[in-house]
């Protein structure tokens, strides 16, 4: 049995012999995002692969089996080549959009898997930092491609939708399903982590509201455009500093607040080992990121055609559909752990992801647009900022007492349905380039000339 176990581990052992990541500290450093993604993974049977005599071929096939077939979402991988073929042969652009979205779903989960594999060799701190920067890689890459095409409205809509879906849809579904599945017992969670994330979300909301209020209070939109842009860039720098402090708080000084509880059966601790090597993990992570970038370019380039073909506004597609499909793996993991009455993990996924988008991805996009000469500010306009504010306030009130039941989850879900209906009936046009914004009801993100 021992020899068989050694043969199954041989592919990555040949590549990287030290077992730095197998310490107890590493296992206890797993975040809620790691635990959530792991719920969608499945064990690979490497018996046939281990019988191959060629070590290089054995290593390659083992990695392919672990990375491509090691997830329950592997059935969606064919959507990636189909999207590429559809793009190359000029198929309907709505089809390219839909296939690209489906292809992004397993890729987002695999990025989380690869960062965890790399963390086995780098240690919990570096692994946590890698997860903190790559946890929402899909949203960040889509935003950067949209910025490069001057589609600032798509950037703001998609990032706003990610925050709303995590706070209302994911958290609401988790609390509702967890409450239904555990009717006979009271569900409790640690409020400390929720309080930290809520505080940062409120700080991000303040940075969004000030440019909006500054523009509304001004006598003329043309006079407040430049000061609003400067205020947004200064606020973005403040938000990034706050996020860096949050990472230091999470990984160094108060790591125990963010560590996900370990699953064990009958009191026996499960020994976990990496399944691919360090350099293989790096290579796969780079490759996955490149494919995400390609599909993100397809999504951004075809979103308007999908909107026209399906009769849906760009705001609805960006705020509702993009986040749901792009983060489906992470969302499913949070709901699964809520069924198991592990609300700390579910809250860590929903609130942690919302905080990362609000305090890292959004200000980073403002800074990147500043660098490349595009005028993007933090003014998401009245309707969008209002929905963000009400969502954060509703979430804060829901999590204030440290206990949960299904009615709290249902309330958050109903809030999300109302917001979705609002953007569904909204037919706000998508402005591009440097189109003039004449008021607070225009599409967000385009500054006044």
From TrEMBL:
Pfam families: Na_Ca_ex (PF01699)
Cited function: Vacuolar cation/proton exchanger (CAX). Translocates Ca(2+) and other metal ions into vacuoles using the proton gradient formed by H(+)-ATPase and H(+)-pyrophosphatase.
Extent of the signal sequence: none
Keyword field: Antiport, Calcium, Calcium transport, Ion transport, Membrane, Transmembrane, Transmembrane helix, Transport, Vacuole
Single GO cellular component term: plant-type vacuole membrane
Protein name in UniProt: Vacuolar cation/proton exchanger
Annotated GO MF terms: calcium:proton antiporter activity
Compartment(s) where it occurs, according to its Swiss-Prot or TrEMBL record: Vacuole membrane
Residue intervals of the Sodium/calcium exchanger membrane region domain: 95-251, 281-419
Lineage: Eukaryota, Viridiplantae, Streptophyta, Embryophyta, Tracheophyta
Membrane-topology annotation of the record: Multi-pass membrane protein
Protein family (similarity comment): Belongs to the Ca(2+):cation antiporter (CaCA) (TC 2.A.19) family. Cation/proton exchanger (CAX) subfamily.
The organism of origin for this protein: Ricinus communis
InterPro entries linked: CaH_exchang, CAX-like, NaCa_Exmemb, NCX_ion-bd_dom_sf
Membrane spanning residue stretches: 75-98, 118-147, 159-181, 201-225, 237-258, 278-300, 312-339, 345-373, 380-399, 405-425
């Amino acid at each position: 049995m021992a020899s068989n176990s050694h043969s199954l581990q041989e592919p990555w052992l040949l590549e990287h012999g030290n077992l730095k990541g197998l310490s107890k500290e590493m296992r206890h450093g797993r975040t809620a995002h790691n635990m959530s993604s792991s719920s969608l993974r499945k064990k690979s049977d490497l018996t046939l692969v281990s019988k191959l005599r060629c070590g290089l071929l054995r290593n390659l096939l083992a990695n392919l089996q672990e990375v491509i077939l090691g997830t329950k979402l592997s059935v969606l991988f064919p959507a990636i080549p189909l999207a590429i073929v559809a793009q190359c042969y000029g198929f309907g652009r709505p089809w390219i959009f839909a296939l690209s979205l489906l292809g992004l779903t397993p890729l987002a989960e695999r990025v989380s898997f690869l960062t965890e594999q790399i963390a086995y060799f780098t240690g919990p701190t570096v692994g946590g930092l890698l997860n903190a920067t790559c946890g929402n890689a899909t949203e960040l890459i889509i935003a950067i491609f949209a910025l490069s095409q001057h589609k600032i409205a798509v950037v703001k809509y998609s990032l706003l939708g990610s925050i709303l879906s995590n706070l209302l849809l994911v958290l609401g579904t988790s609390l509702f399903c967890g409450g239904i599945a555990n009717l006979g017992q009271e569900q409790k969670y640690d409020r400390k982590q929720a309080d930290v994330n809520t505080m940062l979300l409120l700080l991000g909301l303040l940075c969004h509201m000030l440019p909006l209020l500054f523009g509304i209070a001004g006598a003329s939109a043309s006079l407040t455009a430049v000061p609003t842009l400067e205020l947004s860039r200064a606020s973005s720098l403040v938000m990034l500093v706050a996020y860096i402090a949050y990472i230091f708080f999470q990984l160094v000084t108060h790591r125990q607040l963010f560590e996900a509880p370990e699953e064990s059966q009958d009191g026996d601790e499960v020994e976990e080992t990496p399944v691919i090597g360090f350099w293989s993990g790096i290579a796969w992570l780079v490759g996955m990121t490149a494919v995400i970038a390609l599909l993100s370019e397809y999504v951004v380039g075809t979103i308007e055609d999908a909107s026209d073909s399906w009769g849906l506004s760009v705001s609805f597609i960006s705020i509702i559909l993009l986040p749901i499909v792009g983060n489906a793996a992470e969302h499913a993991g949070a709901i699964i752990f809520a069924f198991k009455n592990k609300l700390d993990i579910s809250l860590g996924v929903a609130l942690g992801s919302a905080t990362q988008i609000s305090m890292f991805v959004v200000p980073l996009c403002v800074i990147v647009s500043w660098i490349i000469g595009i005028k993007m500010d933090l003014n998401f306009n009245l309707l969008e900022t209002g929905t963000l504010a009400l969502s954060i306030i509703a979430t804060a009130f829901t999590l204030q007492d440290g206990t949960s039941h299904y009615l709290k989850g249902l309330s958050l879900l109903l809030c999300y349905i109302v917001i979705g209906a609002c953007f569904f009936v909204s037919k706000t046009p998508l402005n591009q380039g440097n189109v003039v914004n004449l008021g607070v009801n225009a599409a967000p993100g385009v500054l006044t000339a």
